[in-house]
Amino acid sequence: MASTIRDLLTMDLQDTHSAETQILDVLPEMQELATNPRLKRVFEEHAQTTRRQVERLEEVCRLLGIAPEGNSREAMEGLVEEAQEIMDELDEGPVLDAALVGAAQKIEHYEMAAYGTLTALLKSMGEAKAATLLAQTLEEERDTDELLTQLAEAEVNPAALGTT
Question: Quick check: pTM over 0.90?
Answer without folding.
Answer: yes
